[in-house]
Request: fold
Amino acid sequence: MWAIVRRIKIREHERGLVFRENAFEGVLRPGVHWLWDPLLRLRIDRLSVRDAWIDHAELDLIARSRELRAEARIVDLKDHERAIVRIDGRFEAVLGPGLYALWTVFHAVEVEGVNARGALFEHADLAAISVARGASRLLEAVVVEAGQVGLLFRDGRHEATLASGVYGLWKGVARAKVLTVELREQVLDVAGQEIMTADKVTLRLNAVVTYKVADPLVAVTAVEDYRQALYREAQLVLRAGIGARDLDALLGEKDAVARELDEALRARVAAIGLAVVSLGIRDVILPGEMKELMNKVTEARKAAEASLITRREETAAMRSQANTAKILETNPTLMRL
Reply:
């Protein structure tokens, strides 16, 4: 009789899983147990409850038994489900679809279920969750900085507009991405533009455009690259505005020309979700021969102005002498004095 009875001792930090012919029969708790095994078909697997995670090749058999539920937490996740596991108040892991079991003997185990059908995951403790075990495989952290807005696209469709903050995207659920768009004022240099004026003078012009994104969704969907689109529209506006003026009119009315170009550019880029704050002409660079010619014109103009001033002074002096002579002629006494 005693040859077919087995004595099993389970220590305080252990649990014994009893299998008979590969069928799970129950759990042995701490103490001494006598088990009937006449055909030597009994198997006892000892597991430590110090580690919260139950790692066993036949977990599916164990989890179905009610014997385990008194001292363990069973987590069975479907394809669209995820779970956040916290052990003793600390985030331990992020779980994907599958079957899991955790001992609750020595540890406080909390399991927070999450529906992952929506690709976006928001949580007050997302920063801590994102570094937990398994998070990098299941979750992608996205940061929207201050002064930016995030556009969430799921399967090619716009789903939400996100304010600044930290967000998570579930991997493997949908084709999701977040595009961040800068809302603060930005500067675009439009440099080295060679333009011919109405009087056939080719000059090089540098301009600067200050702008901001007024409608983020339109800006990223109406054109492939809104900065490139703005640059192209600024080029067209400059060529149209400068090409319709003579060089003298351009140089003499530089501020007025800039205001006119600014209004034209505002109207053109409003359709792609941009707002122009200002457009300014920074430099107007003339060809070398044109510079020499204009210097000569300026020199001649200044010489003419100097000659005119000299003649005016001479005329004034002669007029003063004539007036003096006339006075002396009509007043002999004054002449003698």
